[in-house]
Amino acid sequence: MGTVLVVDDEQSITWAFEKFLTSLGHTVRSAPTAEQGLEIARREPPGLIILDIRLPGMDGLTALEEIRKLNPSARVIVITAHGTLETAVRAVKLVAVDYLAKPVDLAKARRLIESALSGPPASREVERLRG
To answer: Where in the chain does DSSP place strands (E)?
Structure first.
């Protein structure tokens, strides 16, 4: 299994993902801000990042742009309680693997996580979409 980084300012969300992902055999790192998440991603590049859109300080979409510069092959699932079609479209254009709305349905989250970790690296998906 791989390392998963969960970036969310709601402690209950990070705790739930940590318990859930650990039970699936993943190593989990978490951060309450995008800035801290990016620092963790620099030190220990994760295979998957679960990233909240609304965060204190840097927002999740800005962080997603930074993640793409730092690690183009990272798979990213964005989550938010305040989703709009515009936000979802922007996240997908930044090559987020998928989008989860809060409250998070763990069955759906599990399917997305398994799919993200078994699919092609995001960098190949970017090239496919550019073509």
So the answer is: 3-7, 27-31, 48-52, 75-80, 98-101
CB atoms closer than 10 angstroms to residue 83 = 17
Distance between CA atoms of residues 105 and 111, nearest Å: 10
| Residue 128 confidence (pLDDT) | 45
Q: Cα separation of 46 and 27, whole Å? A: 9
Q: What is the pTM of this model?
A: 0.81
Q: Are strands 48-52 and 75-80 parallel, antiparallel or unpaired?
A: parallel
The number of helix segments (H) and strand segments (E) in the chain equals 6, 5
Q: Which of 37, 64, 40, 67 is nearest to 53 (CA)?
A: 64
The helix/strand/coil state of 130 is helix
For the segment 95-106, what is each residue's pLDDT rounded down to a tens digit? 666 778 788 888
Q: What is the largest CA-CA distance in the chain?
A: 40
Q: What are phi and psi of 98, to 5 degrees?
A: -165, -175
